[in-house]
Amino acid sequence: MLIGNVGQDPEVRYVDQGVAVARIRLATTERGYTLQNGTQVPDHTDWHNVILWRRLAEIVEKYVHKGDKLYIEGRIRYTTYDDKQGQRRYATEIWADNMEMLSPKSDNGLSSTNPE
């Protein structure tokens, strides 16, 4: 489960037989704090690659934009691949099962989504 802000407009493409797949970058931030001895601990932001399929991807394409706040439920996927130089690369992605838009409603009137 993640709650965060979208870092850039979603990338949406269509694969086999028109199935939509969307990729978003989601920033989650742990707020900074001050220890009892006065030491300041700064904010810490992590970036997550979130993959959404089918209906969720179509909804993301229409209604989600950079800066929007989202709640994402999903599972972690670890993948490896070889880049153009033949170097082994590792990627961690969140494959979303459910999403809720937490930004204030706009004219679209849509606030909660579930692919089922």
Question: Brief description of this entry?
Answer:
This is Single-stranded DNA-binding protein. By secondary structure, this protein is mainly beta.
Structural class: mainly beta
Overall geometry comes to flat
**Helix share bin:** under 10%
CATH superfamily: Nucleic acid-binding proteins
The strand order across the widest sheet is: 1-3-6-8-7
Overall mean pLDDT score? 90
Give a written overview of the molecule.
Helix content is 9%, strand content 57%. With 116 residues, the protein is mainly β. Strands 1-3-6-8-7 form a five-stranded mixed barrel. It is flat and about 60 Å long.
Describe the structure using short key phrases.
116 residues; mainly beta; OB fold (Dihydrolipoamide Acetyltransferase, E2P); 5-stranded mixed β-barrel; two-stranded antiparallel sheet; flat
